[in-house]
Design goal:
The protein is of the alpha+beta class. The chain is built from four helices and 17 strands. One of its GO terms (molecular function) is zinc ion binding.
Length: about 250
């Protein structure tokens, strides 16, 4: 009978190892661009790692609830999450850290640090209630078999958080709907800079076998002398509706 009780006692000890406040705490790791927190080391650690306070913490256990007390750690000595904000990285958030003030709140009066934290770990994201955002998308159009251009120089991101495209990729400057399918037919492309589709001679990509209106592209913004343009093979094609042109005599 005594041997039967022993496993129950061991199980109770293991089950009780997790404190009541552990559900609010998690271990977070700062990314490279985050603020450093000076590490207070023990004498034993100093032997291997240098003088006290000269090293930085990159990993820290924090709580999201300063009103919970486990009776072990002083409430004023716990690192806590004061604020969480979106970062440019879809897989990370900006976390403002403080210290529990002993009154159930997270204070940044005597201590403040700013960490960018990866939230792809399920444990971290669930404890912080901050989750990776879906990747930003930029709708694109197939201009030709060899060229794809974005419909606008802006990424559409999670919760209407949009951002400019500024990498010089091809973008659609002019288009018209096809007469039957109403699908967009691109007649002029540009390049994305600071969220604007700008005219750029380097954005043109001539395709063999396709008749491009090179004259209109090279004289972008000027009044056209004709509503038809000549192809390399000697044939002519109509220019799209809506372009400004000279009235024939």
């Amino acid at each position: 009978m005594k041997w039967a009780v022993f496993p129950l006692l061991v199980f109770a000890a293991v089950a009780g190892a997790e404190g009541p406040c552990d559900q609010y705490s998690t271990k977070i790791t700062a990314l490279d661009q985050s603020t450093c927190i000076l590490r207070n080391t023990t004498e034993f650690e100093d032997v291997f790692g240098g003088f006290n306070g000269t090293r930085c913490r990159s990993t820290l256990r924090v709580t999201t609830n300063c009103s919970c007390s486990d009776g072990r750690t002083p409430m004023t000595k716990r690192y806590c999450v004061h604020n969480i904000a979106l970062s440019k990285d879809e897989n990370a958030v900006n976390v403002t850290l403080g210290l529990c003030n002993g009154k159930g709140g997270c204070s940044i009066w005597n201590f403040t640090a700013y960490w960018e934290v990866d939230v792809r770990s399920p444990d971290v994201s669930e404890r912080l209630k901050a989750y990776p955002r879906p990747s930003c998308v930029a709708p694109s159009i197939d201009v030709s078999p060899e060229l794809t251009a974005v419909a606008g120089c802006e990424y559409f991101c999670y919760q209407s958080y949009n951002k400019d495209i500024d990498d010089g990729r091809p973008c659609v400057k002019e288009w018209y709907p096809a007469s039957v399918t109403r699908e967009p037919v691109v007649t002029l492309t540009g390049t994305c800079y600071q969220g604007i589709c700008r005219h750029s001679a380097s954005s043109w990509r001539p395709i063999d076998g396709v008749c491009h209106d090179r004259e209109r592209y090279s004289k972008y913004g000027e009044i056209l002398g004709s509503c038809r343009h000549r192809c390399p093979n000697g044939t002519e094609q109509n220019r799209p509706d809506g372009l400004t042109c000279l009235i024939g005599k």
